[in-house]
Amino acid sequence: MQRQGFNGGTAASRVRVTGGLLLAAHLAFVAWYTLRPLDVPWVMPANLRPFDGIRGDFALGWTTGLRRTAEAMALLAPLGVLLPMAGGRLAVSRLGSLIRTMTATALVSLAVELLQTVVPGRVVDVDALLLNTAGAALAHAAVVPAGRALLRRRAALRPAATALLPEEPAQGRTPTIPRVGIAPWSDAFPPSSP
Questions:
Q1: Per residue in 1-36, is it b (16+ CB within 10 Å) or e — as a string?
Q2: Which entry of 4, 20, 70, 191 is 20 to 30 Å from 175 by CA?
Q3: Mean pLDDT for the chain?
Q4: What residues contact residue 11 under an 8 Å CB cut-off, 6+ apart?
Q5: What is d(CA 104, CA 86) in angstroms, rounded to the nearest whole number?
Q6: What's the mean pLDDT in 98-121?
Q7: Inter-axis angle of helices 94-115 and 11-35, to 10 degrees?
Q8: In which element (H, E) is residue 132 found?
Q9: Rounded CA separation 36/30 (Å)
């Protein structure tokens, strides 16, 4: 029997709630950062060819290319950790979790890119979608398997710790309701006339 007063709820539910709150906060930040209008004299055309923007950034210099690539990867990288936290499942396939996280991150990034089409000073960039998804995948691979393993070990140790607690007092017998007698068939159905 698990004592709710002792541990304040399950660890998975606390991780889920914390992950959900942090996820909402991060998505609010991403919306503010990426969807605010820019006051620029001119706008670059939309980049719909994969890796053209990355090549253009590196053509400006290695430091500029690395900085812009790292910024794009870091923007949605926290989703690689926060999405599995909000899910709160400990026993799950590593590959399945990675694929679900990458898919969800790609959809969030796609939504941001599509919403940017109506924001002044912003343009669609397919490279941002690729780099955002790659950043989340790297963060997921670096943090989530180790975090799940740690939580599974803690969950395995918890029954041993609760076994040392004093047993809860019995609550007594479960009340019973006396059975209602069954009426004979003759009382249930009136006699039929032939």
A1: eeeeeeeeeebeeebbeebeeebeebbeebeeebee
A2: 4
A3: 84
A4: 151, 154, 155, 158
A5: 12
A6: 95
A7: 30
A8: helix 126-163
A9: 10
Q: Are 7 and 155 in contact (CB under 8 A)?
A: no
pTM given for the model: 0.74
What pLDDT score was predicted for residue 146?
93
Asked if 98 contacts 140 with a C-beta cutoff of 8 angstroms, the reply is yes
- pLDDT digit string (tens) for 18-63? 999 999 999 999 999 999 998 888 888 899 999 999 999 999 999 9
In this structure, the number of other CB atoms found within 10 A of the CB of residue 54 comes to 19
Provide the angle, in degrees to the nearest 10, between the axes of the packed helices 94-115 and 79-87.
120
Tell me which residue of 111, 101, 106 sits closest to 132, measured CA to CA.
106
- Per-residue pLDDT, 175: 64
Contacts of 90 (CB under 8 A, 6+ apart): 12, 148, 151, 152, 155
- Rounded Cα distance, 109 and 111, in Å: 5
* Residue 47, strand partner residues: 125
Among the listed residues 97, 123, 116, 91, the one whose alpha carbon sits nearest the alpha carbon of residue 36: 116
Higher pLDDT, 58 or 186: 58
